[in-house]
Amino acid sequence: MTRSYEYVCPACQNTVERGFHVPSIVRSCENDCGFDHYIRTDLLDKVESVPEADRPDEWEEMDNEKKVYVALREGVLSLPDLQ
Ligand SMILES: [Zn+2]
Question: Domain extents for the chain?
Answer without folding.
Answer: 5-78
